[in-house]
Amino acid sequence: MAQVSHLIKVFNVQCVMCGRAAGQLIGRGFVPAQRVAAPIAGRNGETRCGECGGNLYLEPEEAITPFMASQIAAQRAGALQQAQRAA
Ligand SMILES: [Zn+2]
Question: Alpha-carbon distance 44 to 41, whole Å?
Fold first, then answer.
């Protein structure tokens, strides 16, 4: 199963307090969710919910291929450009 090792792990980064998804961890990159405040750093350097300061936890999602990861990155870049144009 050589293919499996090439899949990129995906985790939803969710808040235990308010249940908001702060974003997704795709491989080693964090993709912030839109319309949710970016995570903030806590006193001990841990990452906390940008909305309520609650603890964040990782919820495993289905692994994706590097191709899908690049598509998501491209979509994300496109959405940012649209947001900048609208502003
Ligand atoms: Zn929260």
Answer: 8
The upper half-sphere exposure of residue 76, i.e. CA atoms within 13 Å in the direction of its Cβ, equals: 15
- Hey, is 16 helix, strand or coil? coil
Break the chain into its structural domains and give their ranges: 8-86
The answer to whether residues 8 and 24 touch, using CB atoms and an 8 Å cutoff, is no
Give the distance (Å) from ligand 1 centre to CA of residue 41.
Answer: 13
The alpha carbon of 58 and the centre of ligand 1 are apart by a number of angstroms equal to: 13
Within 10 angstroms of residue 27's Cβ, the number of other Cβ atoms is: 14
Q: Are 67 and 49 in contact (CB under 8 A)?
A: no
Q: Give distance in angstroms: CA of 87 to centre of ligand 1.
A: 27
Condensed to tens digits (0 to 9), the pLDDT of residues 36-76 reads 999 999 999 999 999 999 999 999 999 999 999 999 888 88
Identity at 54, one-letter amino acid code: G
